[in-house]
User: Fold these one by one.
Assistant:
Number 1:
Amino acid sequence: MSLIVMVMKIKNVEAVVVYSPEPSIASAPSSLIVKIKTDEGLTGIGEGCTHGERNEASFAAKAIIEKGFKPLLKGRNPLEIQKIWYDLYYYSEWYGRRGVALYALSAVDIALWDLAGKILHQPIYNLMGGKFRDKIRVYASLIFNMDDPESSGREGKKYVDQGYTAVKYGWGETREKAFGLDADRDEETVRVIREVLGPKVDLMVDVGRMVNWTLPYAVMMAKRLKKYNIYWLEEPLPQDAIDSYVALTRQSDVWIAAGEGEYTRWGFKDWILRHAVDVLQPDVSKAGGLSEVKRIVDLAYMWNMMVVPHGFSTAINVAANLQLVATMPNASLLEFRRTESPLINKLVKKPFKAVNGYLEIPEGDGLGIEVDEDVIEEYRVDQ
């Protein structure tokens, strides 16, 4: 085994755009899957959560990987994960550091960790220092149906009946019918959902990216929703409005959550040092991969901040998040997308299933999953 590890090299890198039509544009119909293959026949799988409505971001990230990163990766030792991360980050610095270039880097990094686990026959959490837990409490992550709040409530209650203790609703099905456009309607929607779910279920409200509230409006809505005992209010403000987030977090009696749109430890530094939110939500498939998000959560731990990783794309994202939270000393909760999508329910041969509201940490090599290549091909999009 040691001789094989010493001589193993990266032979090929492939980036595949996948697209699954969804009832809501908030449901991340487009993603990028990356496969890194070695000369010994092993393959690591990663994902970049591009969230494009028309595949534009996925194809941009694919071009970065196949035209820019691939020549830098071929022939490299796949175990040089940190060295490769810095090489790719600084190679793409002129056009990168944030956005699409980080989606590409995240996908490559996750694939390298998966590959390392397969080479060394270890789950990623062992390669990152060991696990603190065997399972993690998850919340069912859903989309608001603003036309029928009772239907939204019943959808969440279905998961409560399965043993889930937390449910989140977000965004809305279209920009024209989004949560966040009308204060009275929004409050009534939350009231109805709380009534259907009952008083003991943790209920999160995700304003999302279809609307941007002002600071005074967000303060007012936090006060109005507090009576329904919501667990947190997520992304009520523009993603770059860190000063407003600091002010809102200080004024609100409801926990404020954000961070899915931020990148790298440098981007998260001010959010952490200023305690801009109560709950930080980095995404391993956007913020720089497992390598970088591990650095982010370790930094947050130093400042005693709660971190609940974001994840609303494919089963690869779920697998990577599970490996991450296994290594976190104080992880207590994880997002688990429950909207219907083949990229969640069919992409891996053994789909993730919560038991009494918990997901078990996979113990297999690497990410601990086996992807279904037929599903990738079925939803593959070629430009």
Number 2:
Amino acid sequence: MKLFAIFGDPVSHSKSPLMHNLAFKTLGFNGCYGRWQLIDGTKLRDTFIHLGLNGCNITVPHKEEAFKAADIVEPFAAEVQAVNTLVLKNNKLYGYNTDAPGFYRALQKLGTTKSALIIGAGGTARALALFLRSKDINIEVVNRSERRLKWFKDEGFVCHTWDSFNPSSKDVVINTTSAGLSDESLPMPKELLDQSLKKAKYAVDVIYGKDTPFLKEAKKLTLPFFDGSEMLLQQGIIAFDYFTDHQYTLDEIETAMRPFLSL
């Protein structure tokens, strides 16, 4: 039996074991997936080896440490310096980032996307901006403060603070902030958000497990949308593909894994 796990702190809330074990059972793959609370990220590699794992996923706050722990890192993960999937092959740890590719796979299901407005300027926003631009999607970033926009400006992205932002037509508006996770706040002033959503075709919130105020505004406008649950599923499908060494098509994995959303 091959062993897999998710590392994080906290990690007790993670739905990854349910998602992967369901797919293992459905597809008849001899694997088992657990969770491990890893407090000290510098011990990630030693813990992986000690547990005898064949692969693992990594969630906050250890994605940067996972990047350091990998022997070989795929190009996109190297660019963002964050790894969320490790696979042991030939006694080497291979590092991948499936978050942004998973997001893009989910986004394609909404329809054609040529432009995107990203709200927020944290790690998730960075990864999505870089990956979506690599798919020839025009990116614009808006954030409350100027300071966190410096990286985006240095990377050549069009950026605005709330004060300088004038909403224009975009195919999709993506909220990468935590606004609405534990309260009823919006990710930016309501007037600016409403103008942005009215000029968009789709809306996405990376938060999962809650009908956020952002998504409520999108629903009022009857915009097609998805939330972090779909992103979680799609990144899991790609990670599962690495775990099982491409034995199944992505569509086969999705058919086996998607029912977890209703469990």
Number 3:
Amino acid sequence: MTRDMRQLDYDELRGVIADQPYMLLFATVSGAHLYGFPSRDSDIDLRGVHVLPAEEVVGLTTGPETLDRTWFQNEAEVDLVTHDPAKFARLMLRRNGYVLEQVLSPLVVATTPEHEELVALAPGCLTKWHAHHYRGFASTQWTLFGKSGELKPLLYTFRVLLTGIHLMRAGEVQADLRELQTIVAEAPGYLGELMAAKAEAEHGPLTGPLTGPSRDLLERDVVALQAALDQAETDSKLADRPTADAALHNLLARTRLRSA
């Protein structure tokens, strides 16, 4: 690949969105670009909400709640996943950090007033139970790193643990590891080095020219961050359940009626 995928071409991405079969309430960039460590050969993860027309909602034959498409365009691998508003709203009301990161992503390709409402309602979906999401995701990525030795799952491990810690403490969803390493006191000092190494290859190994942390140090730091997340959850002032359900219902009803 000759194209450097660390830089996003928003005009190109808007063209991608324009070709979709349903109107989109929003589309944002997720994945490594959102997390602050894209590589030269990274794919582009687009996430959003599509609106089914009324006849595909109220009849016996309904439209797709989820659309998932992956293809290559101008040397770039593009992965686009969108959900119907009802499914997306249900996900927002669960302990699902993914969808909240998507709706709050600053890397906006397409937006609408309804997207702005979702952004405003997102804080009412945050609960202390989101710690379980980030704890589980970190465990999965740490296991994957143990098997592959790649930088990508290692950085994902640190990213999700730090996102979870910051969320529990500050009530804010921050997915960018570059920011997290400056605002979470327990963030290891070598993360910048790991991100710089990962920028050269999406599936590059920890070994090689990198002269950084040992496996033992990595394990100690991951265990320490897991403990910090546990304590942050215990101390968190976040609510036990979401409070935005009625407002999300109202937004969904208005969106459906406008599509009729």
